[in-house]
Design goal:
This protein is an alpha+beta fold. 55% of the residues lie in helices and 19% in strands. The strands form three sheets. The protein has a six-stranded mixed barrel with strand order 4-5-10-7-9-8. It has a four-stranded antiparallel beta sheet with strand order 3-12-1-13. α1 crosses α10, α2 runs antiparallel to α11 and α8 packs parallel to α11. The two termini are 28 Å apart.
Amino acid sequence: MLIENMKMAFSAIRINKMRSFLTMLGIIIGIGSVISIVSIGDTMRAVFADLYKDVGLTQAYISVAYWLDDVRQSDYFNLDDMARINENFGDEISYINTDGGASSDAVYGRTKVKFNYSGIDYNYQDVQPVNMVYGRYFNESDIKGRRRCVVMDTDSARQLFGMENAVGKSFRTTIYGSTEDYTVIGIYRKKVSPLQAMLMGGSTGGSAFVPYTILVWPNDYFYSIRVFAREDVDLDDFFGRLKAYVARMKGRNPEDIYMETAQSEMAMVDKTMGGLSAAVGGIAAISLLVGGIGIMNIMLVSVTERTREIGIRKSLGARTRDIKIQFLTESAILSACGGVIGVLLGVSLVTAGSLIFNVRAVVRPSVVVLAVGFSAMVGVFFGLYPASKAAQKDPIEALRYE
């Protein structure tokens, strides 16, 4: 019986192709919008997850809380403090250094470019590998000797020197009030997708790594420490113990210590993106209501047009339930077809966008199945009234209808 009803439904759709397509259009737009928005949201969440993986999910910054009123000299860290932390937690730390940074003009001849400098140790590549294309990376002597040397990316080298291979070139810059000549010892290449570049914003300045021992205040003081935990460590437990240790070391309460982890940041961003995606997807789903109303309208027209057919079927023994199921099947198939086309449209849009921005598209199969199933349910729901109206027709009156 179901197969027969489906055959009749597809036959009715083929007979009125344009009308059927226009009826499905609301469902197509609704489902396509929902699939696109939810998939774009999932893709963006994946992009942010990849960004956090690039910077290190085991990373954390720790300092005495910036909101305290009684800031003391002892609240700042020094190199001995960092050594003590590394000694006590060495088995659980893969990398540690000062969270040092500075921004200043880099001058080469008549060229002046605003540069952001980040202080790193010689083993930073263990946690943040870079693709060196010219020269070399820092070694232990560069760090301990506080040598005025830098490693920069190819784009920054082109901005300052007009060439990628700037190894051996020197420029003048001022860091913490001290103006010195710095020599380029290595150039690396950054791989950034168009979407990541857009998210990070356009920048006309440059960036470079310098030994972290340079980026400390007078008397080797600094405000915060950056730590990368080992990947096999229980992060919550480790960061909790580290926070308590720093509090004891600084004579502070644990709540006076500020710790920011990449894991918590990523969870917050993921939650925000997921909420926005669900909210906007819900708004887009309202268009399904409009599509459902369109299905109800066209099914009412179909019932009127096929009144005589209904009368003939009833006179040949079709029950009220049979007529009702026939029109419910037709409305469900009409809506499901629109849902399938909407899914194809939505997936195509997301795939095209991912190719343009060079990112991996994320389309969850569960969302696709749910969208098609929901579209069929819309068809059934809005087809109930037309189907009931068709089933309740008097066969004698239906046969007389012209």
